[in-house]
Amino acid sequence: MILVHVFSYKPTNMKLQIRNLHTSFSDGTTGLQGINLTLGTGICSVLGPSGSGKSTLLQAVTQAHSIERGTIRLDGQAVHHSQRSIGYLSSTAESSDVTGEQFLLQAALQAGILSPRIGREQVHQLLHKFGLFDQRKKPLSQFSKGMLCRIFIARSLLGHPSVVLLDDPTALLSPLERQEVLRYIAEIGRQRIVLMATSNPADASALGGRLVIMDQGRIIASGKTDALEAGLNGRTYERLCLPNTIPYLEEKYSIIARIPFLGKELVTIVADEQPDASFSLKAPTLEDYYCYKLSKKRVSESEADFYQMPPLNLNRLSSK
Question: Which residues fall within 8 angstroms of residue 171, CB to CB, at 6 or more apart?
Fold first, then answer.
């Protein structure tokens, strides 16, 4: 009965509302630019390349990163009044010589659980749930990456938060460890608001729910994961090519993926119709959509840069 308690949390009816959020860094570099999100119970994956603003967004919600302008509200209240309703997993947390049990007991106090009895009860529930109870006396420095990830997720659930923020939780995990962690996240998402930053489209696809794609501090796409994938139905083709033929294909088509395969490259393109018989239609994946959106944005930016170039002064050239 004890083990059910932590994960039998009543689904939250709260809303996390982010409006016109802007941030910057101490060196004056622009961070987030006009982020707007409304999230309810379920999982929202934030996908983007390094430096796109994923972690900054999570840190802004926890107030660890200052906000230049805009608002973040949880159930109508400014988020700084609701920090104990927010659990956060940081991918930068480091191991130490404290034991797993000591680590969570210290975290319970930080989460506002002042009763030693209640704190120990919640800690033991979570250690059981994440399969770490038998290792609770082992120092974190001896934990595997998968064990560390599980105990960091457990920490984010102390105090029964309504919102759980996860920063790249499956980074550096083995395939089996990753599958296990994703199952935990899926279970958490049935009862809480989960905002998960990730660099892996496969994680977002496996968890489903909502996807936000970020680049350079902005949201460039948003929607249900299955609907975004379906947006490329009938337009995604692949072909096995010799590497020396790639430049020719790049001149003609929008290439979104090049995967080495037995001395050749498996090339994926997006086109409105089949280019020729050598290309096969493929079922689009979320990774295909992600790469397509990023490549499309890069092309539009390069075109904008071209048209903003100053006109060439032909008179000056001819005089030389």
Answer: 91, 199
For position 316, what pLDDT does the model report?
A: 45
Mean pLDDT estimate for the chain: 88
pLDDT in tens, 79-134: 887 777 899 986 555 557 899 999 999 999 988 898 999 999 999 999 999 999 99
Could you identify the residue written with the tokens 């975290």? 107
CA distance 151 to 93: 11
Q: What is the pLDDT of residue 82?
A: 78
- What does the alpha-carbon distance between residue 83 and residue 62 come to, in Å, rounded to a whole number? 7
- The span from the CA of 298 to the CA of 202, in Å, is 22
Q: What distance separates the 2 farthest-apart alpha carbons in the chain?
A: 89
Residue listed under structure tokens 């139905």: 233
Helical pair 100-110 and 116-129, crossing angle rounded to 10 deg: 130
Nearest to 88 by CA among 60, 124, 67: 60
How many whole angstroms separate alpha carbon 287 and alpha carbon 305?
A: 27
3-class DSSP state for residue 89? strand
List strand residue ranges (DSSP E) for 146-286, in order: 163-167, 193-198, 210-215, 218-224, 236-241, 254-261, 264-270, 280-281
- Average pLDDT of the residues in 229-255: 93
User: How many Å apart are CA 217 and CA 239, to the nearest integer?
Assistant: 34
Beta carbons of 225 and 208 less than 8 angstroms apart: yes
Least confident of 82-91, 102-111, 164-173, 188-197: 82-91
Identify the pLDDT of residue 1: 26
pTM of the model: 0.86
Helix axes 145-156, 175-189, angle to 10 degrees: 10
Selection from 166, 18, 151, 156 nearest residue 91 by Cα: 166
Q: What SS3 state is found at 18?
A: strand
Q: Are 73 and 17 in contact (CB under 8 A)?
A: yes
35 closest CA partner among 68, 76, 79, 13? 68
Angle 68-73-76 (CA atoms, 0-180°, nearest 5)? 145
